[in-house]
Structure formats: structure tokens, C-alpha cells
UniProtKB/TrEMBL annotation:
Region (Disordered): 95-127
Gene Ontology BP annotations: DNA restriction-modification system; methylation
Molecular functions per Gene Ontology: DNA binding; N-methyltransferase activity; site-specific DNA-methyltransferase (adenine-specific) activity
Any single Pfam family the record assigns to this protein: HsdM_N
Organism per entry: Corallococcus macrosporus DSM 14697
The name this protein goes by in its record: site-specific DNA-methyltransferase (adenine-specific)
Known EC number: 2.1.1.72
Name of the top EC class for this enzyme: transferase
Family: Belongs to the N(4)/N(6)-methyltransferase family.
Coiled coil: none
Domain of life where this protein originates: Bacteria
Keywords, ordered alphabetically: Methyltransferase, Restriction system, S-adenosyl-L-methionine, Transferase
Residue intervals of the DNA methylase adenine-specific domain: 273-593
Upper taxonomic lineage: Bacteria, Pseudomonadati, Myxococcota, Myxococcia, Myxococcales
Length: 634
């Protein structure tokens, strides 16, 4: 399905007319519009519709859920759904031809018009040469039957995890059997734990389950296997899914899925060295994110965005923290970065938190399959109201917090110690997250995170004053404007913020009073009709510019590039009202030099245009002629 067309002026007007004068006034202020008499509602409506600087997706993202529901009801749309982004997308989809509705969020990927294109691009997208990820996904998706993607995700990923731990166990067991004459005991759990391998009790071993995959009791057998593994491996307590016996899960299809996953080696040493499981797991997470839309976006940040954050921050050694960690992608990419630069697993200590219970369990599994030790708190919990790491001061913070969250409980946290730069508005958590990150940074710590574009320019509810205080405190190191269509979960434009507690520490050059702006909106490539990704070259370019600017050893010399990057001083930012949108600072791209003289080029282009006019006239005459024949025959 092609992305929705822009809303027509009539559709935008009908949407805006559902809002109160106070809300329209705040929107006009947010986008910096001149509306004349501010008391007249239509003045605000007209100014918003006429302005080319207003992104309607961003505008809708600023509204409360109740306002979006009222708009849907007035426009004859379904007002159901608790997630704001679902309602936003429903309204934006009015721009599709004939007001066509998008496919259901739980529709199988194979049922989506773009599925074929995505499956062609996906192996390259995930950087894999495995050759079977897409095949495995397609086969598994066919077995989904009447389960939606949100439920089926845990069915599949739980089995993949079980196959992995069983493969690793069986390989080490074979080694212990070969060394039995030397005193090795293949049934001693400590023999496995000493090698960082999960002990798998007999009833949970994959061979036992696959032998009974065709039995009607297979669902209960899998649940029992999950219980047994948790019982004998305390680090997995309350983590694994145990819903395979439920009536809604077709046991014949479950058996087929077990046979399918059983055909692939995942946990033996050779496949562990190639990170086969990690790559299959990541592939499935991304496909579930695509199939689920917003729901998937709650736990999945696109790989290229994570990689860019990590490459820019360069977390070589120290404490890495993500207070809204989703499925743990930031941690995994950080470990990969360390290993790719000569470090080893364990050079960084990982701390995280996640409020959604199923996503928290997903993160625990995702890290466990890679042998990554992480402190994700004793349980799932909200970072604002139940901070699991109150005393943590992190060297690196990487995060993708919920955009424009209006239901974060701000009214109950007005006196919180974290709000050093101003009390964040109760209707938007963006600057609560920013200040939470700052609060948890070590004296020389750095943070990189994703936020909605509105965070760079909003002046409503005191956000502008908070942003100004943070800039004047010399904390904002770099701002990156990202291209659209990177995320499965939202059409709201997003950006990257990078904060540095100490811009004059000895490791890097003194950057006090400076901020780097990068406009990366033109980067990336379309991997299907609706999704874009940043290429490795894009990531290297942006990260290289940032690291050169801040003075990383061996990163080269930094230079401003018109239309792309600009190092701005505090006084320059102040002159722009502390708006941090990169486009305000980088200027226009330099025009390419033309070897062809202007006169010759003008004559050539004029001739080409004349030829195109002539061809257009010929085609019009031919069409009229054919229409006349049709009329005569009628």
C-alpha cells in the first residue's frame, strides 16, 4: 500500500474545526504562525491550512487522545483505540484514494500489498547472508491462523528461544559424554552453568518435544518445558511465555511450527559464532513490528536508527542505560560496537527498565540468547513513577522513549527532583524524558535518544523555556533531523538529540558554547513502498561528522557542509529563539557548478520543453480522437 496522500485543504479544515479556540491558539504558537486577530477561530484554521511549514502528522501528534477521538467521530471514522498513533494514522489515511482504510494492524504480512517487495529487500536490509530468515518468517506466518501478531509473536519467539537453549545444551552434553572417562558428568547442571550455558531439564529438551509435536497434548508439554527451564535457571524466572495450552492456539499448527523451527540449527557453537539466533530473532522482531504497526513500535526501534545512535555515541566502556528499553536492541547494538572495535563482552555494564510486562520479558529473552548480562530491574516498572535505578549515573544513555506521551502521570510528579530545568507539561512527556536522562548521566556521561520533531521547536506549556535552560546549561551537543518513514509505528517526524554533561572533558576537545546541527532528512533508501532505512554509508557519514566535530582520535578534521551540517555558537541559537531544528542552521545546499554556459543550457532546456509541449498536444488529440470513436459506437 502506498503511503497516504496528503490531506486535502477541505479535510484539514474539517479536522481543525473540531478543536477548541485554546487548542488552535496553542497550535498556531507551536508552529510560529501569524494569525491576525487571535480571538477568531477561523483565523487560526486558515493560517494552519495555508502554512507550508505545518506538518499535519506532527500537528495531530500534539493533540490529546480525547481530541483525536472526537475528530474521528466527527469525520465518520472509527474512534476506537487507546493508542494516539493509531488514531493519528486513521485520520491521516483520509488522504488515501477514496478514503481507503489501511489493512488491519494484525493482518499477516503476506496479506499486505507491499509484502512481496519487502520480502525481496529484507535479506539485504538485515545484513544477513543466512538465506532462510524470510523463508522461516513466511512459513511461520502461514501457521498463525486466527491469532493476531501481538499474541503470535510470543508463541514463535518463545519456541525459537527454547530451540536455542536446547541446541547449546545438547552440544555441550555431547562434549561431556566424550569426556565421561575423565570425570565429566553430562547430567550435572553446574557443568553447563560454568560455561554460561542454560541447564535444560529432560522434559524441556527439544528432541523430547519434537518427538511429540503431533500429539494433542503438545501445548501443555511446551508450557511444562518453559516452567521447568525457569525453575532450574533463576535468571529466567517469570520470563518465558507459558500460554501454549490455551484453546485458541491450534495444536496441529503448533506441532507444524515446532517441526519447522526444529529444522534449523540455532544454538550450537558454529551458529552461535555467526549469531544465527540473534539475527533470526531480530528479523522476526522487525517483521512483527511491521505487522503490528504501532503495537510493534512499542518494543522495536529500527536497526539502522539504533546503529546510528550507537556509532555516534561510541560506548567503548562503562555503564549503558536505557530507561525505556523495549526489546533491548540498544544494548545488543552497543555490545556489537564494543566487539567490533576490539573490546569484549562485559566491557560495558547494562542497565535498563521497561514498563510493559510482555516487552520486559521479551528483552530478558533477547539478551539471554546472546549471553548478555543486564540489570533490567526486579520487574517491569514505569521509569517516572518507579525508577528501578534511582542511584545510577550512566556513562552512556541510549533510548527511544514514547513520542508525545500524554498519559505519563505528570500531575503526580510536579515536585520531582529530576525537573532541574523546569516542570514538564502534564500533557507531553518529551521533556520529562530529557530531564530523566540528564538526571542519570555521570559527570562526563553522554546521551543519545529519539524524540518527535516538535521537541526541537515547541513553545507550548513551558517546553520552550525548558529547552532554553538545557541549551544555556551547555548540555546539547548535537541535533540530527532524520528522514521520514524510518519507523513502523509512527508517521510523526523524529529527530535525534545528543547531550553531553561535560563538553570540555579531557578525552575530547572543548566544545563549550557549541552545538552541531546535522540535517539528514535526505539520507536513506526506500526498502519497500512505505519504509525507509539508513544505509551503512549514511550511518558512517553522520557518525563520522559528529565524531570529527567533537574531536575523537583519528576521526579527521571537521568542516561545515552547506545544507547538511553546521557548528553553531550559543549566541546563534539564542538568535533563533532556542529552536533546535537543524534546517535553521545548516543553510541551503551549494549549487553544483555547471560546465555548460547559461545561454546554451537555456536554449537546450527551452527546446526540450517545446518538444514536450508538442508531444502533449499530440497525445491529447489522439485521446480525443479515440473518445470520439467510442461515442460513435455507443
Amino acid at each position: 500500500m502506498a503511503p497516504p496522500l496528503p490531506l486535502t485543504p477541505q479535510q484539514r479544515r474539517a479536522t481543525l474545526e473540531q478543536l477548541s479556540r485554546d487548542r488552535l491558539t496553542s497550535l498556531s504558537d507551536h508552529f510560529g504562525l501569524d494569525v491576525g486577530d487571535r480571538r477568531v477561530i477561523q483565523n487560526h484554521v486558515n493560517a494552519i491550512i495555508r502554512s507550508r511549514s505545518v506538518d499535519f502528522g506532527e500537528l495531530l501528534g500534539l493533540l490529546k487522545r480525547e481530541e483525536l477521538q472526537a475528530i474521528c467521530e466527527a469525520l465518520g471514522l472509527d474512534r476506537g483505540g487507546r493508542e494516539k498513533e493509531v488514531l493519528v494514522q486513521r485520520i491521516l489515511n483520509l488522504g488515501a484514494p477514496d478514503g481507503a482504510e489501511p489493512p488491519p494492524e494484525d493482518a499477516p504480512v503476506a496479506d499486505r500489498p507491499q509484502a512481496g517487495m519487502r520480502k525481496q529487500a529484507r535479506p539485504e536490509k538485515n545484513g544477513g547472508d543466512l538465506g532462510f530468515e524470510a523463508t522461516l518468517w513466511q512459513a511461520a506466518d502461514k501457521l498463525r491462523n486466527n491469532l493476531d501478531a501481538a499474541e503470535y509473536k510470543h508463541v514463535v519467539l518463545g519456541l525459537i528461544f527454547l530451540k536455542y537453549v536446547s541446541d547449546a545444551f545438547e552440544e555441550h552434553k555431547a562434549q561431556l559424554l566424550a569426556e565421561a572417562d575423565q570425570g565429566a558428568d553430562p547430567e550435572d547442571p553446574d557443568e553447563y552453568r560454568a560455561e554460561n550455558i542454560f541447564w535444560v531439564p529432560r522434559e524441556a529438551r527439544w528432541s523430547q518435544l519434537q518427538a511429540q509435536a503431533k500429539q494433542p497434548t503438545i501445548g501443555k508439554l511446551v508450557d511444562d518445558a518453559m516452567v521447568a527451564i525457569e525453575r532450574d535457571n533463576p535468571s529466567l524466572k517469570s520470563v518465558l511465555p507459558k500460554e501454549y495450552a490455551r484453546p485458541g492456539l491450534d495444536k496441529q499448527r503448533l506441532g507444524e511450527l515446532i517441526d519447522l523451527i526444529g529444522s534449523i540449527g540455532l544454538g550450537d557453537r558454529a551458529n552461535r559464532s555467526k549469531d544465527i539466533l540473534g539475527r533470526v530473532y531480530e528479523y522476526f522482531l522487525s517483521e512483527f513490528a511491521s505487522a503490528e504497526g504501532k503495537k510493534g513500535g512499542q518494543f522495536y526501534t529500527p536497526r539502522s536508527v539504533v546503529k546510528l545512535l550507537v556509532e555516534m555515541l561510541a560506548p567503548y566502556r562503562g555503564r549503558v542505560y536505557d530507561p525505556c528499553c523495549g526489546s533491548g536492541g540498544m544494548f545488543i547494538q552497543s555490545e556489537k560496537f564494543v566487539e567490533a572495535h576490539g573490546g569484549k563482552l562485559g566491557d560495558i555494564s547494562i542497565f535498563g527498565q521497561e514498563s510493559n510486562p510482555t516487552t520486559w520479558r521479551l528483552a530478558k529473552m533477547n539478551l539471554a540468547i546472546r549471553g548478555i548480562d543486564a540489570n533490567l530491574g526486579a520487574e517491569n516498572a514505569d521509569s517516572f513513577r518507579r525508577d528501578q535505578h534511582k542511584d545510577l549515573k550512566a556513562d552512556y544513555i541510549l533510548a527511544n522513549p514514547p513520542f508525545n506521551d500524554s498519559d505519563w502521570g505528570g500531575e503526580r510528579l510536579r515536585e520531582d527532583v529530576r525537573w532541574k530545568f523546569g516542570v514538564p507539561p502534564a500533557g507531553n512527556a518529551n521533556f520529562a524524558w530529557v530531564q530523566h536522562f540528564i538526571h542519570h548521566l555521570a559527570p562526563t556521561g553522554t546521551a543519545g535518544f529519539v524524540l518527535a520533531n516538535g521537541s526541537m521547536s515547541s513553545n507550548q506549556s513551558g517546553e520552550g523555556e525548558i529547552r532554553r535552560a538545557i541549551v544555556e546549561a551547555n548540555l546539547v551537543d548535537c541535533m540530527v533531523a532524520l528522514p521520514s518513514q524510518l519507523f513502523y509505528s509512527t508517521q510523526i517526524p523524529v529527530c535525534l538529540w545528543f547531550l553531553a554533561r561535560d563538553k570540555k572533558n579531557n578525552r575530547l576537545r572543548d566544545r563549550c558554547g557549541e552545538t552541531l546541527f546535522i540535517d539528514a532528512r535526505k539520507l536513506g533508501r526506500m526498502i519497500d513502498r512505505t519504509h525507509r532505512e539508513l544505509t551503512d554509508e549514511d550511518i558512517a557519514r553522520v557518525a563520522g561528522i559528529y565524531r570529527a566535530w567533537r574531536g575523537d582520535k583519528g576521526a579527521g578534521k571537521y568542516e561545515d557542509i552547506a545544507g547538511f551540517c553546521k557548528a553553531a555558537r550559543l549566541e546563534n541559537i539564542s538568535s533563533h529563539g532556542f529552536v533546535l531544528t537543524p534546517g535553521r542552521y545548516v543553510g541551503a545546499e551549494d549549487a553544483q557548478d555547471e560546465d555548460e554556459p547559461f545561454a546554451a543550457r537555456f536554449q537546450r532546456l527551452t527546446s526540450t520543453l517545446a518538444a514536450q509541449f508538442a508531444e502533449g498536444a499530440r497525445l491529447e488529440a489522439e485521446i480525443r480522437k479515440q473518445l470520439g470513436k467510442v461515442a460513435e459506437q455507443g
